[in-house]
Design goal:
It is a single chain. By secondary structure, the protein is an alpha/beta fold. The protein folds into two domains: 5-105 and 218-229, Rossmann fold, CATH 3.40.50; 107-216, Rossmann fold, CATH 3.40.50. The chain is built from nine helices and seven strands; from the N terminus they run βαβαβααβααβααββα. The strands form two sheets. A four-stranded parallel beta sheet has the order 5-4-6-7. It is globular. The two termini are 21 Å apart. This is Aspartate racemase. It holds the Pfam family Asp_Glu_race. GO terms for molecular function: amino-acid racemase activity. Belongs to the aspartate/glutamate racemases family.
Length: 238
């Protein structure tokens, strides 16, 4: 029996829809899902948390909203939870204190993927908060991979692009801005670039650059789909 997936979303709303559709596509492509009964049950809670792209000053309110939502999904009998946002996963351990249902940690999923692919040095495009709170650092460091982060000037560009995407106003100009940042990271020795923000896949994809882009949302969605389909207990990536 397929496991029920809970999604904490709204950060942003379009990124949440993208994560959901990636799980659906994985079921179609890997498990030959065709009829409605072939797909897992979902509970999606899209919550309007305070801004976490440009500021973390409302951390207490954000944690309260995330925790209350996780409890709702647990009460809805979800077998596990995924969070459609990279940034707020720095609060993962605090959220887990209030529930027993597993939450899949995106950093653990990505670190395992990078290790399997034998990368040695990668770069990352994410919100400033994701970088400052070191959402990925410990897990990736544990597998011996170096992470190159954008300089201050380039990080401001990434932030601007994310905010523009959240407003639904990105154009080719924003894609070109990210390409320049990526080129700068490549020149520092990056073998691949982590697209570690759920809103950035709507702005840039592999067709836009020759360097390997690792879309964290896609890897995360694949793992969620696999866990849901598997008969094994959820005991990894939490």
């Amino acid at each position: 029996m397929k496991k029920t997936i809970g999604i904490i979303g709204g950060m942003g709303p379009e990124g949440t829809a993208d994560l959901y559709m990636k799980i659906i596509r994985y079921y179609q492509q890997k498990f030959n899902a065709k009829y409605d009964k072939d797909f897992p049950e979902f509970f999606i809670s899209s919550i309007p948390i305070p801004d976490v792209v440009e500021s973390l000053e409302n951390e207490k309110i954000t944690l309260t909203m995330l925790t209350e939502t996780a409890i709702k999904l647990q009460n809805a009998q979800c077998d596990f939870i995924v969070i459609a946002c990279n940034t707020v996963q720095y609060l993962l351990n605090d959220i887990k204190k209030s529930i027993t249902v597993p939450i899949i940690d995106i950093a653990k999923v990505i670190a395992l993927y990078l290790n399997k692919k034998r990368y040695k040095k990668v770069s990352i495009l994410a919100t400033s908060a994701t970088l400052e709170k070191k959402v990925y650092d410990n897990e990736i460091d544990n597998v011996g991979i170096e992470v190159i982060k954008p300089n201050n000037k380039d990080q401001k560009i990434v932030t601007k692009v994310i905010m523009t995407q959240l407003a639904g106003k990105t154009t080719k100009e924003e894609t070109n801005m990210l390409i320049q940042v990526i080129n700068n990271l490549k020149n520092q020795g990056a073998e691949a670039v982590l697209i570690a923000c759920t809103d950035l896949p709507m702005v840039i994809n592999q067709k836009d650059t020759k360097i390997k882009l690792i879309e964290c949302t896609q890897i995360y969605a694949n793992q969620a789909a696999f866990i849901s389909f598997s008969s094994k207990q959820v005991n990894s990536f939490v």
